[in-house]
Amino acid sequence: MSPEAIVPADPRATLRGGLPDRYLTPDDIAAMFEVSLETVYQWRRKRTGPPGFRIGKHVRYDPTDVYAYIAQLKNAEIAA
Predict the structure, then answer these.
(1) Residue 46, Cβ neighbours under 10 Å: how many?
(2) What confidence tier does 16 reach under pLDDT thresholds 50, 70, 90?
(3) pLDDT value at position 36?
(4) Exposed, middle or buried: residue 56 (CB in 10 Å: 0-12, 13-18, 19+)?
(5) From the CB of residue 42, how many other CB atoms can be counted at a distance below 10 Å?
(6) How far apart are CA 79 and CA 24, in angstroms?
(7) Residues contacting residue 41 through CB under 8 Å, at least 6 positions apart
(8) For residue 76, pLDDT beyond 90
(9) DSSP string computed for 10-45
(10) Is-contact 23 61, C-beta < 8 A?
């Protein structure tokens, strides 16, 4: 058996469903949804996109909040 097979998976990856183990930037959100950075800022201004928060002058997004936002959109589409 190879040594790679013996090493257990990172439990944080399992808990977070494979999401990054760091806060996301607006650039990350733009890349994730394949939209422009300006669109991400408009979503934040209009409060229509995933919820973000400020750390000083920087906007960050919790990956679990982004995942919940996506799940909410999926559920709304199914209900419609």
Answers:
(1) 8
(2) low
(3) 97
(4) exposed
(5) 13
(6) 29
(7) 26
(8) no
(9) PHHHHHTTT--SSPBPHHHHHHHHT--HHHHHHHHH
(10) yes
Amino acid at 40: V
Counting Cα atoms < 13 Å in the Cβ hemisphere of 12 gives: 6
Position 53, amino acid = F
Q: Rounded mean pLDDT of 3-30?
A: 67
Residues 44-56: tens digit of each pLDDT: 999 999 999 999 9
Joined together, the tokens standing for residue 57 give 């002058």
pTM for the full predicted model: 0.72
